[in-house]
Amino acid sequence: EEYSNLSTDVDERKRQRRKRIEKNTTSDQIAVEEQQEKIVDAIKTGQQQVDESLFELDTRKRVGLKAVTDVRIETNESEAQRRVADEELKRSRLFKLQQEALISAKANAAVEMKWTELLEKEIPQ
Fold first, then answer.
1. I want to staple 7 with a disulfide (CB 3.0 to 4.6 A). Which of 12, 20, 65, 120 is the partner?
2. How many other β-carbons are positioned within 10 Å of the β-carbon of residue 65?
């Protein structure tokens, strides 16, 4: 409906002016509401981006910690294996030393017995 100022009736003109003002106000309100919705959507999008970024950071942190943990576990296992091997080598060396000491003690005892035999012999001069 077109608004015209051609009407001669003052009340009719006032009524048409009010309708025009109301229409303009309504369209302004709609524009403001649409702008507010865009701002809210932008805020939501911003918040969504923050949430996604935090999730990505958490994921990377979890993956990094898992990698570090895996390296630590592997290092601990290899260290434990190295210690077991070192302990076995230590036992082997100790056993060899004990065997050598036993053989040496037997040989020394044999030599000692020969000395006593030699000292008991009388060599004529």
1. 12
2. 10
Distance CA 89, CA 83 (A): 10
Query: Which residue type occupies 4?
Result: S
In order of 72, 82, 85, 87, 106, the CA distances from 78 in angstroms are 10, 6, 10, 14, 42
CA angle (17, 19, 23) in 5-degree steps: 115
Is there a contact between 16 and 7 (Cβ–Cβ < 8 Å)?
yes
Query: pLDDT of the chain along its 125 residues, tens only?
Result: 455 555 567 787 788 888 888 887 887 788 888 888 887 777 777 778 888 899 999 999 999 999 999 999 999 999 999 999 999 999 999 999 999 999 999 999 888 888 877 777 777 76
Note if the pTM is more than 0.70: no
